[in-house]
Amino acid sequence: MTKHKTKKSNGAPIPTWAFLVGAIILLTLAGAGIWALLTPQTPNGVGPQLAVNQERIELGKQPFEKMVRAEFLVTNMGDRALTLDASAPVRALEGC
Q1: Where are the beta strands (DSSP E) in 3-94?
Q2: Is 17 in contact with 50 (CB distance < 8 Å)?
């Protein structure tokens, strides 16, 4: 019976490329986990959904700087609370 000599490793360092690949994989997984935690989840529903009763308001030709008024109905068709910021006024420009 012959004896085979086995080579013992004496703690050879990890190659730089292997270390970089491992670090990139770990950072990618950590980033995906953080993104998944911070993304709002609606497990059994759709969340808030804004619906407007008319897509376009046609006012025809109007003189410059004349105040015009248009009304439309805004509805929440979703299953979560819909919050609108009323501090910012709506402003429409010619041609919009």
Answers
A1: 50-52, 74-76
A2: no
Helices (H), 1-96: 16-38
> Sign of the CA dihedral 85, 88, 89, 94?
negative
Q: Are 14 and 40 in contact (CB under 8 A)?
A: no
Q: Is pLDDT of 1 > 60?
A: no
Q: What are phi and psi of 17, to 5 degrees?
A: -65, -40
pLDDT, position 27? 94
Please provide the average confidence, as pLDDT, over all residues in the chain.
Answer: 79
In this prediction the pTM is 0.39
Decide if 71 contacts 57 (C-beta within 8 A): no
User: How many CB atoms neighbour CB 65 within 10 A?
Assistant: 5
pLDDT surpasses 80 at 53: yes
